[in-house]
Please model this.
Amino acid sequence: MTQAVPSKPYVRLRRASDSVVGGWKRIGSQAQFYAKTLASIPDAVVNYRTELWRLIAQMGLGAGALAVVGGTVAIVGFLTITTGALVAVQGYNQLASVGFEALTGFASAFFNVRLIVPGTTSVALSATIGAGATAQIGAMRINEEVDALEVIGIRSVTYLASTRVLAGVVVVIPLYCVAVMMAFLAARMGTTAIYGQGSGVYDHYFSTFLNPTDLIWSFFQVVAITVVIMLVHTYYGYNASGGPAGVGEAVGRAVRTSMVIAAIEIIFISLAVYGQSGNFNLAG
Amino acid sequence: MVTYLGGKPVRAVGGFFAMTLDTFVQMVKPPFAWKEYILQSWFVARVSVLPALMLTMPYSVLLVFTFNILLTEFGASDFSGTGAAIGTVNQIGPIVTVLVVSGAGATAMCADLGARTIRDEIDALRVMGINPIQALVVPRVLAATTVALALSASVILVGLTGAFFFTVFVQHVSPGAFVAGLTLLTGVADVIVSLVKATLFGMAAGLIACYKGISVGGGPAGVGNAVNETVVFTFMVLFAINIIVTAVGIQFTVQ
Model:
């Protein structure tokens, strides 16, 4: 038996207002999820410690086929090697064209720390541990495992999201050390071994202009980026819908959202830290 | 035991090259799937344009900001346009294009093909005598290539515009000096190398996404993992291509 429903008045107006209201609602629900996730981190440390350790181990080593290529550490290391080598290729040749190739060591110390390594690491994190988290949580949501967790009395946001945010922060600290070392090494190898600059010249300008304060700030930058990346990725995984294709779409949407947000976050932190004085002194 | 440990990744690499070869052969064989090609191009462009513009702005602003700290110290901030042009045309343009085409376009392609694979729709196509490589993979790979090429041009323009506004209105460099500095070290050859890079990136991203998509196994979790692997492998391959093309291209562009 079909039921006749009277058509609603002002359809277009209603549709337009619905999309605006829907957008606001989405922002609200995201903010709520993020606040809940961050507030539940102490709970995760106290009650779900086993899951936390498991996630830390898994994020460091990678899951599935990613473990075969060496896990997160190898992927992040590889990406920063290529961008570090880029400093040698682009920096050396560009500086040589104006007769300044001696300053390649300076370019490595300055641009790697402030610009290239945080940018590359944020992209690599969103692709590896971020996308992995979305894929895992999304698959659990599609298989109704998240609801099952709630039914057996496990707080799903704490158990799935808070643990991952904290594990991401724990994993990123050694990971970032590897990333910075790889970028420096690749830039030095490229400049001295391939382009044939004297290693004394390179090391002199490198160590003269390597500012330890900058390194610490870039560390803070990456930890802050990791928190945001993990929050975005867990949100998209937790709210995945629409079957197997939905999980894949959620991963894609999470990757592009978190890359954009990470880029905006890097520029804001950089402006806040270096904006006033530049924190740079050529005279040493 | 050794074959078990080493077999899987090697077989995946072999499968990827086999599919790539098939794709190139089918690309020149009629009939070409025009409708699918146009639909896919439109789809990739639609999901990529906004993230690309949102991503290129912060990166180019960050670049000129960091570079101008240096130039101000030398007393040479008139040359900020030169730094912006080198960074944006040679690196940020192609790299942002890569990140977006693989992060937005390739993931969606892989998810779409993966969902069809686990529902056995690809096998159904084969049963009906339709070659899935010709009908699905070729148009997707070409769409990713086309959109990457088109996108990199707009990314470079938007990046330079963003750098111009930040340098002129926030860091108070004279606009004329900025524009005059743009072409000091960056020429037509750099732009050509940059577009070649973007084209190669788009093709590699499309091939990896399609391979991961049609070789999915293991239900919904499998599709999610395949998309994750697509992102990781495309980033790795693309960064590797970038360093090689940069090292080769720089021989022609820098005098």
In short: Residues 44-245 of chain B form one domain.
